[in-house]
Design brief:
This protein is an alpha/beta fold. Helix content is about 25%, strand content about 20%. Helix 2 packs parallel to helix 11 and helix 5 packs across helix 6.
Length: about 375
């Protein structure tokens, strides 16, 4: 069995008030796994290891160096962020859908009102030159791209282009495809089509050799498929018949199975996507060892300790045992499922905004967003 890693070489240190522990499912307790940080070598143009260490101690500086965003001698201010919305045209019997794109921009730093949120990005700002890595963020079931605006804006300010598709029949205005192959097979296809659309527009320029993915909940399921996993829609019926439990999963999918509307659609992997961050991965029971055998890495998995929608212990243990690659694993203590959704603005008190006592979602996101930038920088450090 492969061993998972947390906070491995070059990652945000696993200490301090925001340290994120790793749960060993066999031990039944929280613990930290030591970080192994080798002595840094001075990057090109830096005069000493000491100056390199000063950069290493600031994740944004290190990432910018690795991505070629700044000169190693003179760190520039973080770039402005642009925001645009494109249409991904209908194809292969699947409907058209919008994709929101955050990107490094030129000009002054600005903001845009998006529904209840004010995001730190300027609508249709002139794009910086690039080429930049591309990250696709796949939202959770019944949600929308705005659910992850803070992660998208942070990545764009760090030198990434970020595309957020609104998945047809599984967003805040239409959940008619939930628990069906229209979404379970459709989401990975939509991720691929969003990549096609952003690459074709070429503004800003994309480095096609550095494409990654972030998925939350049902989006994390789609991320596994995009990375090569193959679901088996017969597994839920067998699982819930043999070990019935009154979970939402078994109530909705187990006894009746996954609803089939597009039996001609098969799992679609996208080899262009070379690294993925998966948050609260849902529907992991759809994958057995054979189904996960072709999954590519590197992978970083986030779980919430008190997740009320995904059984963290079951999903974590399932993926650790069966994945052919050793993922980095982080468990957020005390947190519920919605901790991965962007923090709400002051005064907005909706169920999606609420966390269990002792959880500071804004602090969690500041740390997590920095870790995500660091993960992709390490994944592509040699490219």
């Amino acid at each position: 069995m492969t061993r998972s890693r947390t906070n491995s070489i070059g990652a945000v240190p696993s200490s301090g008030p925001l340290a994120v522990p790793w749960r060993d499912p066999n031990a039944g307790s929280m613990r930290h796994e030591a970080s192994r940080n080798p002595e840094p070598r001075a990057p090109l143009g830096m005069t000493s290891v000491a100056s390199a260490r000063r950069c290493v101690d600031h994740v944004a500086c290190l990432v910018a160096l690795l991505l070629g965003w700044i000169s190693p001698l003179h760190a520039q201010p973080r770039p402005a962020v642009g925001l645009s919305t494109f249409t991904v045209e209908a194809a292969d019997g699947d409907e058209a859908f919008p994709v929101t794109v955050y990107y490094p921009a030129t000009g002054a730093v600005g903001s845009t009102r998006e529904g209840r949120f004010t995001v730190p990005a300027t609508r249709d700002a002139p794009a910086a030159n690039g080429p930049f890595p591309l990250i696709v963020i796949s939202h959770g079931s019944g949600a929308s791209p705005i659910s992850h605006w803070d992660t998208a804006a942070h990545l764009a300010a760090s030198g990434f282009v970020v595309a957020l598709p609104r998945h047809p029949r599984d967003h805040e205005g239409d959940t008619g495809g939930v628990w069906s192959d229209v979404t379970l097979m459709g989401r990975p296809r939509q991720i691929a089509r969003a990549i096609d659309t952003v690459l074709a527009r070429a503004v800003p320029r994309i480095d096609a050799g550095r494409i990654g993915l972030i998925g939350f909940s049902a989006g994390a399921y789609a991320g596994l498929v995009t990375m090569g996993a193959v679901p088996d829609f017969d597994l839920p019926r067998r699982h819930c018949t043999e070990a019935w439990s009154p979970t939402a999963f078994c109530r909705n999918a187990g006894r009746g199975g996954i609803r089939r509307e597009r039996p001609d659609w098969t799992a679609r992997s996208d080899p262009r996507v070379s690294a993925a961050v998966l948050m609260a991965p849902a529907l992991t029971i759809l994958f057995d060892r054979a189904g996960l055998a072709s999954t590519r890495g590197p992978l970083r998995l986030y779980f919430a300790e008190k997740d009320e929608a995904v059984s963290t212990d079951i999903a974590l243990d399932h993926l650790r045992r069966l994945l052919p690659v050793a993922p980095e694993i982080v468990v957020l203590p005390k947190a519920g499922h919605l901790v991965f959704v962007a923090p709400c603005p002051p005064g907005l008190d909706l169920p999606v905004c609420r966390d269990p006592p002792g959880v500071d979602r804004s602090a969690v996101h500041r740390k997590m967003n920095a870790e995500i930038v660091d993960f992709f920088a390490r994944a592509w450090a040699t490219r």
